[in-house]
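pinned: reference chain
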Amino acid sequence: DTVILVDVDGVLNVGAREERSSGAILLNDENIDFAFRLLRRGALRPGDASEPARRAAAELLVSMWKRKIPDEGGATYASFLCRSPSMVSAVLVERLARLIRLAGKQRAVVLSSSWRKQSHARKVRYLEEAISEHLGEAFTFDAATPMVDEYTVADRLCCLRNFVSSVCASRSGLDGIRSNRLKVLVLEDFFISAPSEWPASGSALPELGCGFFVDSIDSAETFIRSRPADGADVSVKVVHTFDEWTSTISGLRVAVGSGLTARRTAEAAAYLLNGRGGPCGRCDEAGPAP
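pinned: its structure tokens
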């Protein structure tokens, strides 16, 4: 049996972290049009205090637009552009649908994103409809992780671990999950952060009861599966959709939630097919990356 935990931002779209605002800027058609217009204008507008921040955002967008993606045949992140009003990339949604199909019928697909908040309900319905089109059958998320405020990577990791533990203990009412052998695929950008940036210990939410040290993908996987129920055989694969580089425009650091690139999709497919995260001889069953 398989559980797929799906973050949305940084997995089904591409966005760059804005250091000034601690937020993210989405790579979509409206934002990239703004970026090219602003950078073409050249000189700063005198007296406009917001201009440096606007230009930094524009630089992030243009840098993403031009950045080549490994194993994508020379394509750049522009190929993952979101078309307004959609907040997800059609290419990346199709790749998720292929992974869902690979997981077979004994599966549950769980929303672990901030999109599980009620304020995002309309966007989730749009996403479910898009996945349904690719699957050729009606699709809805089987569940969502508990509604807690998540301020740090530590909080997200605790939420994932607690959910996996609850699935092991009671199956959490998930259709399709019946056996004690469970594969858990986690698709996450962890708030657009590298493992080296993850907090060393603790959580901003004491009620989660989590104290830990996680500083790598391997240790994150170990942590998420660290509370199995008696008799449960649990494996966890974290596919970390993150990339970073230095902008050639001004030397600005660019950190992005990179989406399901061909490399990350193949990594996830390998795990679904044979329980490992490396290459496998049957990964072409996932289909060619568009």
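why pinned: The chain has seven helices and nine strands. The two ends are 28 Å apart (CA to CA).
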